[in-house]
Amino acid sequence: IPKKPAEPSVPPQAPAASASKKTPAPSASKKAPAPSGQKTVPAAPGPKKAPAASASKKTPAPSGQKTVPAAPGPKKAATASGPKKAPASSPPKPAKAADPASVMERLGLGVHTIMLDPGHGGKDPGCLANKLVEKDFTLDMAKRIGALLEKKGFAVLYTRSGDTFISLADRPDLANKERADLFISLHLNANPDASVRGLETYYLSEARTGDAAKVAARENGVSLQNISDLQVILTDLMLSAKLKESRSLARCVQQAVLGGLREAGLSIGNGGVRSAPFYVLMGTRMPAVLVEFGYATNAREAANLLSEKFLQRQAEGVVNGILAYKEQLAKSMR
């Protein structure tokens, strides 16, 4: 009998109590003070979950806050490329495109007033040969050209409208005072060699050939030796921009006059575009050219210069040359 009481199942109940250990499943509570009396305290591991909230660095860790990920929204706001695009659109590059224009190109686009200068006049008859009187020829040509220009909408001015004498120095001054946009001086040519012929258009510069120097000396009324002195003065007077535009105008006029005559079945020699130090072109503040419509000393050319049809075609050619020049400048500004 005494052995029976030694067998009481009490000890087995103790292990049964271990089943309660399952309830606080976290046996890790052993890390907490071992006293089993606090096994009911295992709720304390809750704080361990709380520190697990330290994963808040990953804000989404707390499952209850999975909806919080909307927080990255501000990141998108921060990364909003919108502001980056705004500065990208800031460059007003078109403004730079307008910079390259030269002053003379801007002036060319405003071609409205043209000063025509009939060469010689009054006590100065100009060249006399083969029934041609230069001062009369140039005045007639100026009126023809002027009438055509007015039909195209240009304002036309004349250095002289009758048989009056005007000095070479006063002619460019008149153009400057009236603020003309172009200055075109009209002349007839002459040469001791009667075989020389042809249309020539000049712009202000140093004479590049002996023939150009001779023409300049005759028109200026000075000796050939004095032309070299003029060339020295030109160094200070010439503006590269005006020179460039004057050369361009001379080319347009020369080509248009020659082209118009050929279309009409008429012919004239092509003396080309040349540069020379003409007094009448000095001091002008606008593109300026001098047109020699042919040689009065050449019999064949003189006969053409007395022809109504020939004269009208030449006048039309000058106008077409001016229009071509203006269009050329307009294209260069686009």
Task: Characterize the structure shown.
By secondary structure, the chain is α/β, with parallel strands linked by helices. Helices cover 47% and strands 13% of the residues. The chain is built from 14 helices and 8 strands. It has a 6-stranded mixed sheet with strand order 4-1-5-8-6-7, with helices on both faces. A two-stranded antiparallel ribbon has the order 2-3. Strand 2 and strand 3 (132-133) form a beta hairpin. Helix 8 (134-151) packs across helix 14 and helix 12 packs across helix 14 (308-332). It is globular and about 45 Å long.
Protein topology:
Layout: H1 3-6, H2 10-22, H3 45-52, H4 72-79, H5 82-88, H6 94-97, H7 103-108, E1 113-118, E2 128-129, E3 132-133, H8 134-151, E4 155-158, H9 170-177, E5 182-189, E6 199-204, H10 210-220, H11 224-237, H12 240-263, E7 270-276, E8 288-295, H13 299-305, H14 308-332
Parallel strand pairs: 1-4, 1-5, 5-8, 6-7
Antiparallel strand pairs: 2-3, 6-8
Helix pairs in contact: 8-14, 12-14
Features of this protein?
334 residues, alpha/beta, 6-stranded mixed beta sheet, 13% strand, globular, disordered N terminus
The amount of beta strand, in percent, is 5-15%
Q: Identify the overall geometry.
A: globular
Mean pLDDT: 75
Please state the CA-atom Rg, rounded to the nearest Å: 50 Å
Number of beta strands: 8
The total count of helices amounts to 14
Note the quaternary state here.
single chain
Low-confidence stretches: 1-83, 94-108
Helix content: 40-55%
H-E string? HHHHHHHEEEHEHEEHHHEEHH
Helix-strand makeup class: alpha/beta
Query: Could you tell me how far the N terminus lies from the C terminus, measured between alpha carbons in angstroms?
Result: 127 Å
